[in-house]
Inverse folding.
């Protein structure tokens, strides 16, 4: 029998090395499902409970591995559900292919059921976005879709009317120009090295700098050795954007930790005081945390020329792969003898770490979220894959989880979406079954895609979930209080017994509210194989304070309390006691 359009589609995916598809079937995509079923020994279908999770998993898979992540959804509502995860992939540069369905080709546009023209809907999110018109159209389009997603590190989308999915090649009348098998499934990349004159100009700037600071982003992941060598040569502190967490190990003497609201003081000071800035593979979006424009001479490395100068006025842009570019730059750099800028940063790091340790060891009741993360840090194996969600949980994870050994850290850096961590962690164990994965997630975020707890059980995945239960959309509460000076509104959450929910989904589950028991509970959860959830009941009034509190933030905060914030007495006391601890 002649192959169907769906057979050609899945065979092309196999030719592109795809071995996993995340999704949820429906009558608008069942033709493709059958082609997947027939090849289930070669390509896994991971069934999700919500298509948004499938898109996050495909995105997470791409973030962990650098390979193409693939998700699938049915026509209409299924496809619509993918969107948030696809934007996450687009924003953080993860190559993802989305496969969706549409109604019968001759009913499109007739208000038939699920008649959503998903190619129109996905116009903004996808760099490659095509409706497949017949079986003979599949091989050209699918290979171009895979190639485009990988080349642009972004989203490709293909949509097939449901009858086209089962159309056989034999029954399709090909146009004469569409010669069968005229396409190739070979992927090629450029060398990713900047030209010599740009390298020489960059070296001149870096050699002339007295206080050089490096800002490393996700482009620098995998360039740790080169980054450390350059930092050593330039006596430069290395601050990392959230997506670059782990680009330099935390035990490297040049590492100063994160930047931005969830960053560290020494990183912030180094960025403010530097006279020369080397941005290595980062588009860290908060412009206000960069040096004041004009203060520092800047060199930026990025694989995408469109990103050069995106956040800071750049003197020289080096377009290339970070690792290769740093390696090419190194022989052109002179050793900086004056270590004073680095020494200052290092003493700042020592102070910051002491403060974090002090916060992480507190025995207060209710339990401090920092304590939970600190305990998690000491239990996490050196090869752990850490997925962080969006909320105050991100801040505490960014500050208290240390990147040493081969640990990896993945978050939603640019879209900053909630609900990504559990799907990311699932994708992590699918990609690397031998490595333990953990999702650090807030209670608001976990409840958004809680159905994926059942996915953990279904596939017996070794994922641990640490949920910070503060019964509030904490991050937003603090934004309302500290940035706007308004009392919190719409942030309190109806408490959920997450341990009971997890047990109902077939997971092992623990609840811990006692700081003294937190470490032991974590150890138990990590000691057992398979999925487990740790519900950590934490202080809702613990602020995720930025590295420096500005006068206007303090003023807003006071205003919000005066205007009538619920629990203002407790909040004021908690914040004041944190401040006092920092002073003594
Ligand atoms: C999908 C989505 N909706 C809303 C937001 C805005 N937002 C950012 S953090 C946050 C609160 C997160 O609450 P929770 O998961 O409980 O974590 P917490 O801040 O309490 O630690 C919200 C609502 C977002 N980033 N993403
Ligand atoms: Mg919360």
């Amino acid at each position: 029998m002649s192959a169907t359009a769906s057979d050609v589609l899945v065979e092309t995916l196999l030719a592109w090395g795809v071995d996993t598809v995340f999704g949820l079937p429906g009558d608008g995509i069942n033709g493709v499902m059958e082609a997947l079923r027939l090849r289930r020994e070669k390509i896994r279908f991971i069934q999700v409970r919500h298509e948004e999770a499938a898109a996050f998993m495909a995105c997470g898979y791409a973030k962990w591995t650098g390979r193409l992540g693939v998700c699938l959804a049915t026509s209409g509502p299924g496809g619509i559900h993918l969107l948030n995860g696809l934007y996450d992939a687009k924003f953080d540069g993860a190559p993802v292919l989305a496969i969706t369905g549409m109604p019968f080709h001759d009913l499109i546009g007739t208000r038939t059921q699920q008649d959503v023209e998903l190619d129109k809907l996905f116009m903004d999110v996808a760099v490659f976005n095509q409706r497949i018109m017949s079986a003979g159209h599949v091989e050209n389009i699918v290979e171009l879709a895979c190639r485009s997603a990988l080349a642009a590190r972004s989203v490709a989308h293909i949509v097939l009317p449901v009858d086209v999915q089962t159309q056989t090649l034999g029954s399709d009348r090909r146009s004469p120009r569409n010669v069968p098998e005229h396409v190739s499934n070979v992927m090629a990349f450029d060398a990713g090295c900047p030209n010599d004159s740009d390298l020489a100009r960059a070296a001149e700037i870096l050699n002339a700098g007295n206080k050089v600071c490096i800002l490393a982003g996700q482009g620098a992941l995998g360039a740790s050795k080169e980054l450390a060598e350059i930092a050593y040569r330039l006596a430069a502190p290395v601050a990392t954007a959230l997506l670059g967490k782990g680009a330099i190990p935390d035990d490297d003497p040049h590492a100063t930790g994160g930047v931005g609201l969830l960053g560290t003081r020494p990183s912030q000071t180094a960025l403010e005081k530097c006279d020369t800035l080397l941005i290595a593979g980062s588009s860290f979006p908060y412009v206000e945390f960069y040096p004041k424009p004009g203060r520092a001479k800047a060199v930026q490395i990025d694989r995408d020329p469109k990103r050069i100068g995106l956040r800071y006025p750049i003197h020289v842009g080096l377009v290339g792969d970070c690792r290769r570019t740093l390696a090419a730059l190194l022989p052109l750099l002179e050793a900086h003898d004056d270590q004073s800028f680095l020494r200052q940063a290092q003493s700042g790091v020592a102070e910051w770490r002491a403060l974090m340790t002090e916060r992480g060891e507190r025995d207060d009741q209710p339990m401090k979220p920092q304590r939970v993360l600190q305990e998690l840090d000491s239990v996490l194996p050196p090869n752990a894959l850490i997925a962080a969600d969006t909320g105050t949980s991100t801040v505490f994870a960014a500050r208290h989880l240390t990147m040493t050994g081969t640990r990896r850290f993945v978050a939603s850096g640019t879209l900053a979406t909630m609900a990504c961590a559990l799907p990311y962690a699932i994708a992590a164990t699918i990609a690397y079954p031998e490595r333990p994965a953990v999702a650090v997630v807030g209670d608001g975020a976990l409840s958004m895609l809680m159905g994926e707890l059942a996915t953990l059980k279904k596939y017996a995945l070794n994922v641990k979930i640490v949920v910070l239960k503060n019964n509030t959309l904490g991050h937003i509460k603090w934004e309302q209080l500290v940035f706007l000076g308004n009392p919190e509104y719409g942030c309190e959450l109806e408490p959920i017994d997450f341990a009971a929910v997890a047990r109902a989904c077939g997971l092992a589950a623990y609840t811990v509210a006692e700081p003294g028991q937190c470490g032991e509970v974590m150890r138990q959860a990590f000691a057992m194989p398979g999925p487990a959830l740790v519900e950590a009941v934490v202080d809702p009034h613990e602020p995720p304070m930025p590295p420096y509190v500005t006068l206007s933030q303090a003023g807003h905060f006071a205003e919000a309390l005066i205007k009538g914030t619920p629990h203002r007495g407790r909040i004021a006391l908690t914040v004041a006691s944190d401040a006092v601890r920092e002073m003594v």
The pocket of magnesium ion (ligand 2) is lined by residues 391, 442-444, 470, 472-474 (CB under 6 Å). The mean pLDDT is 95. The longest strand covers residues 96-102.
